[in-house]
Amino acid sequence: MAVMAEVSATTGAALRGPASPAPAPMKESEAEKLRFIEEMTSDVDAVQERVLSEILARNAETEYLVTKCGLAGATDRATFRAKVPMATYEDLQPYIRRIADGDRSPILSGHPVSEFLTSSGTSAGERKLMPTIEDELNRRTLLYSLQMPVMNLYVPGMDKGKALHFLFVKSETQTPGGLAARPVLTSYYKSSHFKNRPFDAYNNYTSPTAAILCADAFQSMYAQMVCGLCQRHDVLRVGAVFASGLLRAIRFLQLNWEQLAADIEAGALTPRVTDPSVREAVAEILRPDADLAEVIRAECSSGEWAGIITRIWPNTKYLDVIVTGAMAQYIPTLKHYSGGLPMACTMYASSECYFGLNLRPMCDPSEVSYTLMPNMCYFEFLPMDTGSGGDASELVDLARVELGREYELVITTYAGLNRYRVGDVLQVTGFHNAAPQFRFVRRKNVLLSIESDKTDEAELQRAVERASALFRAHGATVVEYTSQAYTKSIPGHYVIYWELLASGAKSPGAAVDRETLDRCCLEMEEALNSVYRQSRVADGSIGPLEIRVVRPGTFEELMDYAISRGASINQYKVPRCVTFPPIIELLDSRVVSSNFSPALPHWTPAQRNDD
């Protein structure tokens, strides 16, 4: 055992780095997980070569590799590179549609497709369907199991309390062929891996599983919140998947604290929660507690919400949320509500595949880098700085990326995605052993995002064109426009700035009335993709779209400002999304009317099956 302790200490020190404090002695199960990380990251190229060979051998008889690529059973890198092209979702969509329609032949995967995971990315306005296979759950579960052993190196004692994590399932559909189509986290929460998980002191949630699995967003949130309040002194970390989700939970507390306090005082759950399984699960936790009810009333009635997380849950050590990429916009608000608690981004994953871990989870959000685990899939990287537009001959292996360069992520998965362009742009920031570490830079082509929605420039342009047709008969047109993802309110919402031109002597304001502009907001929402509309209608995670009409000449002022800061007058283009505070201030100071969508856009869970 002395040798084992020495190995564990050495492994922990390697993961912590020289500046981190020494942790308490670790359990053998933790040490085993940390050794696994060290093993996987020490000879990345050998692991990757094995993974690619396994994937190609498993999928050797698939239609895609045989007919499309002519691989003829080869499992070596050289043949793979020579014969398999890079692919986008649109390239694979005909194959995916056949699987969705019930074709059970080995089209993309040699193993049966067990379900489809619906991506937050869209194609032709609809969610992308990502085929997955049964044993992919094992790989996801393995990556989850590595998070807390790493965290325990930095924040010891996390097994001595509970996690208040706001976790939710979303709506799912069935494809014409009878396979489930649902988001990746909904798939995981409904799996036996999650529902029948053995007790784990590091992942002991305040929320009953029944509350997490409740499809009604209000009932689920209410039950999770009341259980979190009842166990307030046990809570050591507070979180949600995305930063925006945690802010929605705080907003929910702001709106419902009086009823929550009344339920806790009476020891009885509000009739608004009707799900029998949820009521039964909450009844195991909820007991009459007048003192706790008084604490909640005292903390929430004053209207002062700064530091509310640590005031209600005083033992919280950090927030467990994703605050990279589009979620970075929520960092100041989270700091306000948490009193400046650290924010831990622990994992990098997508619907296509789970990728890697943050081995320095307590670092500043601006310094988050993820170590890609080479056992998860086969990774390749397309350099962003070559200017060629992307050619498969330029792809670089995981072991051969260069420090400081930016790449687009390309993956080959066990489930049958081959050289698939994920659309994430990553920058190499360093190495852990031989494994590169990457900073998430951005999603390619994404203009606006509040939560899981992703709206690109072409889609925004189409929405503007569709909406502006409503006032064409009034003799008005949109001269210029730009946008921002407004996150100072909860939930956040899209803000579109329009400069209008009216024909004749009319002013733009006189030409287009408020009711028409309100309808334009809704018309834009109707034109946006199904992920956006689901977030508005079913999830409540995005607020009504807002159009702010600015006075004539505003966009000329915008150009003048950009030129004053060094932009070329010959190359200047109006930015279709703005984030720079002085530009937003300029636009807002020129607003002559503000209009909101008066209703919810149309959305149903049904997956569109036509072209």
Automatic annotation (TrEMBL):
Entry-linked InterPro entries? GH3, GH3_C, GH3_M
The keyword Translocase is assigned to this record = no
Question: One Pfam family for this entry, by name?
Answer: GH3
Q: Where is this region: Disordered?
A: 7-28
Q: Which residues form the GH3 C-terminal domain?
A: 459-580
Recite the UniProt keywords alphabetically: Ligase
Query: Ligase as a keyword?
Result: yes
Q: Which GO terms describe its molecular function?
A: ligase activity
Q: Which domain of life is it from?
A: Eukaryota
GH3 middle domain sequence ranges: 370-443
Q: Known PANTHER family for this protein?
A: GH3 DOMAIN-CONTAINING PROTEIN, INDOLE-3-ACETIC ACID-AMIDO SYNTHETASE GH3.1-RELATED
The family this protein is said to belong to: Belongs to the IAA-amido conjugating enzyme family.
What is the designated name of this protein? Indole-3-acetic acid-amido synthetase GH3.8
